[in-house]
Amino acid sequence: MERTILLVDDEEHVGAALARLLRSDGYNILRANSGPQGLAVLAQHQVGVIITDQRMPGMSGTEFLTKVRALYPDTVRIVLSGYTELNSVTDAINRGAVYKFLTKPWENELLRANVEEAFQHYEMKMENARLSEELSLANDALTSINLELEQRVERKTLEVVHNLEVLRVSQEMLEVMPLAAIGIDRDGMVVVANRMAQQIFSADGAGYSLLGETAGTVLPADLLAWLWSGLHQ
Question: How far is it, in rounded angstroms, from Cα 81 to Cα 9?
Fold first, then answer.
């Protein structure tokens, strides 16, 4: 990601000197000579770090950075001004509008180190924001998946309940049929027998259950032969 820095100073030679120094570190340099012009630049470019003078006509550095904080809160904001301006900057520092105060005249290596630190701070905030967004999207996807699973389980539960109800009604209808109904599995075991079948085929009438008995012990030979012929066709 390209590192873009905005330099705001109403003195042309100061802005030019800063630009020469920082351009050697590979930064993309943007410049403005006032707070309003700086805001116009920010509306057109994504800026990671701002360095501004404090004493400028029309809008002071801290006034400018207070507006920047409201509009672009992730941008790292630095005031570079004379030591005598520190008192006017202190309140802005305490309110969080200013990340750091650096004095003029600056020491080149110290300034470069502070700018590097500011970009690291900015990039860490951007990475945290990206990770938070990814986590939010993952949570949304998980919520959607869970909702879909819940809906599937609900539909499956309703289907099972419906099938059980159909089975219950079918069993009740089978039980009250005026005809004998008997079911035999392929091993020859009686697995279904309604009330009429109990009365006809049970040795002692309805008091003896046919379920679990072998067909050969409860059914007449000719009926059994007919059933087996049907099963093996």
Answer: 10
C-alpha to C-alpha distance for 88 and 219, rounded to whole angstroms: 109
Q: What own/partner pairs with CB < 8 Å and gap ≥ 24 does 100-105 have?
A: 102/51, 102/78, 104/14, 104/80
Domain for residue 86, yes or no?
Answer: yes
pLDDT digits (tens, 9 = 90+) for 87-115: 777 777 777 778 888 988 999 999 999 99
pLDDT of 232: 59
Sheet containing 4-8, strands listed edge to edge, beginning at the edge strand earlier in sequence: 28-32, 4-8, 49-52, 76-82, 100-104
Q: Rounded to whole angstroms, how far apart are CA atoms 83 and 105?
A: 9
Q: Of 65, 100, 126, which residue constitutes the final position of a domain? A: 126
Give me the domain span that covers residue 52.
Answer: 4-126
CA–CA separation, 60 vs 40, rounded Å? 16
Within a domain: 65: yes
pTM recorded for the entire structure: 0.62
Specify if 143 maps to a domain.
no
Number of domains in the chain: 2
Q: Are 20 and 5 in contact (CB under 8 A)?
A: no
Question: Which residues make Cβ contacts (< 8 Å) with residue 20, sequence separation at least 6?
Answer: none
122 and 208 share one domain:
no
Q: How far apart are CA 24 and CA 187, in angstroms?
A: 91
